[in-house]
Amino acid sequence: MEEIRLKARAKINLGLDVVRKREDGYHEVRMIMQTINLYDKIILRKREKAGIQVKTNLSYLPANEDNLVYKAAKLLMDEFAVEEGVSIELNKYIPVAAGMAGGSSDAAAVLVGVNRMFDLGLTRRQLMDRAVKIGADVPFCVMRGTALAEGIGEKLTPLPMMPKCHILIAKPKVYVSTKFVYGNLRANELTYHPDIDGQVEALKEGSLKKLAALMGNVLETVTIPEYPVIEEIKQSMLKHGALNAMMSGSGPTVFGLFDEEEAARKAYRELMEGEAARQVYLV
Questions:
Q1: Distance between CA 151 and CA 66 in Å, rounded?
Q2: ∠ CA 13-105-282 to the nearest 5 degrees?
Q3: What is the pLDDT of residues 83-121, one digit of tens each?
Q4: pLDDT above 90 for 213
Q5: Nearest to residue 41, comparing CAs of 27, 55, 28?
Q6: With contact defined as beta carbons under 8 Å apart, do 116 and 4 qualify?
Q7: What does the pLDDT read at residue 190?
Q8: Closest Cα partner for 220 from 190, 198, 264, 257?
Q9: Is 147 exposed, middle or buried (0-12, 13-18, 19+ CB in 10 A)?
Q10: Which phi and psi angles does 269 have, rounded to 5°?
Q11: Which one of 17, 40, 106, 137 is the catalytic residue?
């Protein structure tokens, strides 16, 4: 195949609990991860000349080995001694540094594409095993769908599909460092833990309302006091009919679940007209 076009889909966390901080500095988590219909577009093109070229539509993103798409391509091409080259055109639509695994999803899409383009013959499971070398979220982004994530996020258990609903996404005009969030989380002192097992049961029952009611993210205990605009966006979504609203990942993006399309559209218009959010999507 000379050219492959791919969609790298964003994720949200329907529930995010941090179980403990390990002695090696990593945090053990239990999360419900969900792929959504917001995606970056990636085009892979085969080149006769060896090497990897990266081009993006955002000037501030690295176009070298510091970009996860480059690392993903290099991982497989080095392992299988691919003599040809590849160019990667990355068009970003998922908000950057937003807690939606945009970079991880891009890397996952490139793993899938390179495997297909050069006929490497790897199964999805084999791609997922390699993906964790790039980042903890990358295996899920290869798998997609709905899953329980444990360990540092790499231990994945597929779950029943999330009930259909309307998802409103809003990224505020702030930048949140994942390192800052986890660095300031007192994981071993948390008194609140979301009911992840209850969410798993809600998915098995196909109950959107129960799933939404049990949403929770312990990382909000760090980010909301530091960035109150996150709570402002949550309250705006709830005011306009969201079943629930929550920060995704380490933030700052907020998402709301709606069972009524008109309510979701009204909340979308409100956020678009307001000052709190820089990027707003309804998916």
A1: 25
A2: 55
A3: 999 999 999 999 988 889 999 999 999 999 999 999 999
A4: yes
A5: 55
A6: yes
A7: 87
A8: 190
A9: buried
A10: -60, -40
A11: 137
pLDDT exceeds cutoff 80 at 228: yes
Residue 66 known to be catalytic: no
Q: Which two tokens stand for residue 158?
A: 């597929």
Annotated active-site residue 11? The verdict is: yes
Give the strands of the sheet with 166-172, arranged side by side. Answer: 244-247, 254-258, 166-172, 277-282
Neighbouring residues of 147: CB distance < 8 A, sequence distance ≥ 6: 32, 33, 140, 156, 157, 158, 159
Q: Is the pLDDT of residue 23 over 80?
A: no
| Separation CA 20–CA 81 (nearest Å) | 40
CA pair distance 263, 279, nearest whole angstrom: 19
Which residue in 11, 71, 74, 171 is the catalytic one?
Answer: 11
Nearest Cα neighbor of 282 from 232, 224, 241 is: 241
Q: Any alpha helices (H) in the chain, and if so which ranges?
A: 68-79, 102-117, 124-131, 138-143, 178-183, 196-205, 208-213, 220-226, 229-239, 261-273
